[in-house]
UniProtKB/TrEMBL annotation:
Record-linked InterPro entries: NAD(P)-bd_dom_sf, SDR_fam
Keyword Oxidoreductase part of the UniProt annotation: yes
Biased composition range(s): Polar residues: 24-36
Keyword Zinc-finger carried by entry: no
GO cellular component terms, semicolon-separated: membrane
Compositional bias (Pro residues): 7-22
Family from the record: Belongs to the short-chain dehydrogenases/reductases (SDR) family.
One GO MF term attached to the UniProt entry: oxidoreductase activity
Region (Disordered): 1-40
Record protein name field: (+)-neomenthol dehydrogenase
UniProt keyword terms in alphabetical order: NADP, Oxidoreductase
Organism from which the protein derives: Panicum virgatum
Coiled-coil regions, chain positions: none
């Protein structure tokens, strides 16, 4: 049984011996003159590459900035070129190692183009933060009018990008990580359909096909208008189903990678109710506060890095509640 670590302080991280990395090959990503350096004893270096999706605003932007402030090289991605460049430029002006690349996670061609660029121009990645997501509801509404877009972006998009980038992780000892920004709205305790709960809980028999089928079933019920009485989460149902699927996929992927001996960890992080555009500015914390904790989770020392965990703020949750 894994014993979960308490979050370390951002400084005071233990030194970890590290094999040399292949250098970033693109001259457009030569950040040798940038100002921020990793803190003494950090396991990462300026050559450690973190990709953050949906990073032109909100939590993604704050997290990209925070990782760059920790001294990593950050690929800030956004689906809109102008918005992405406008978000990256002020960070670069501060001397941070931030590159912008366009990426629409819901578009297969965009994902393929991004993966090819990352492989050829950057040489791979070490950290992937799947942050991009949409919700079309007000705080107190529960329309499923945009369910297809919500599922295509929040679940299928994150999965498609993850699968495309998996071969590009530079699998240095225990340092390759995927952090999926998820939500407690997609925890198992929000599901009242007992057979669905049982399916998702049975780690030995759950498959990716079963998760995909669950999502298809929900979308079919949205189409025929029967979704309301099927035991799905009651709040922001389409968004919650997208995070339910993302949580289940993350757990399964963690097991798949572990079984294969691949040294890439996969964890989920729920930031809690945060004041961003998604919540129309409502929430109990700021994107910057979330970025602080998110960056610390993304940068956990290799010896303390779990896989298959779901962090609700700083606290890992029991799987039975996932
Ligand atoms: N805010 C909360 O209370 C809260 C709570 C729990 C979890 N979360 C999660 O935290 C993450 C960030 O949310 P947020 O509150 O920062 O939301 P936000 O302010 O609405 O930002 C969402 C970001 O995702 C991008 N995005 C949307 N669709 C995309 C696509 N197809 N391809 C690429 N990027 C896309 C948006 O880009 P555009 O600017 O182009 O639209 C934007 O940059 C999400 O995963 C969300 O589910 C948030």
């Amino acid at each position: 049984m894994y014993k979960y670590p308490r979050l370390p302080a951002p400084d005071g991280l233990p030194p970890v011996s590290h094999p040399p990395r292949s250098p970033l090959v693109s001259s457009s990503m030569d950040y040798s003159s940038t100002k921020e350096s990793p803190p003494a004893g950090a396991w990462w270096s300026r050559e450690t590459v973190a990709v953050v999706t949906g990073a032109n605003r909100g939590i993604g932007h704050a997290l990209a900035a925070r990782l760059a402030e920790h001294g990593l090289t950050v690929v800030l991605t956004a689906r809109d070129g102008a918005r992405g460049e406008a978000a990256a430029a002020p960070l670069r002006a501060r001397g941070l190692a931030v590159a912008f690349r366009r990426l629409d996670v819901s578009d297969a061609a965009s994902v393929a183009e991004f993966a090819a660029w990352l492989r050829d121009a950057v040489g791979g990645l070490d950290i992937l933060v799947n942050n991009a997501a949409v919700s079309f509801n007000e705080i107190d509404t529960n329309s499923v009018e945009h369910a297809e877009t919500v599922l295509r972006t929040n679940f299928h998009g994150a999965k498609m990008l993850t699968e495309a980038l998996l071969p590009l992780f530079r699998q240095s000892p225990a340092t390759s990580r995927i952090l999926n920004i998820s939500s407690q709205l997609g925890l198992l305790n929000k599901v009242s359909d007992s057979s669905l709960k049982a399916l998702l809980l049975d780690e030995e028999t759950l498959t990716e096909a079963a998760i995909d089928a669950m999502v298809s079933r929900f979308l079919a019920q949205v189409k025929d208008g029967t979704w309301g009485a099927q035991g799905w989460p009651k709040v922001w149902t389409d968004y919650s189903v997208s995070k339910l699927a993302l949580n289940a996929y993350s757990r399964l992927l963690a097991r798949r990678l572990q079984a294969r001996g691949a040294r890439v960890s996969v964890n989920c992080f729920c930031p809690g109710f945060t004041r961003t555009d998604m919540t129309r500015g409502w929430g109990k914390r700021t994107a910057e506060e979330v970025a602080d904790v998110g960056a610390r989770l993304a940068l956990l020392p290799p010896g303390e890095l779990p896989t298959g965990a779901f962090f609700k703020w700083c606290t890992p949750q029991l799987y039975s509640k996932l």
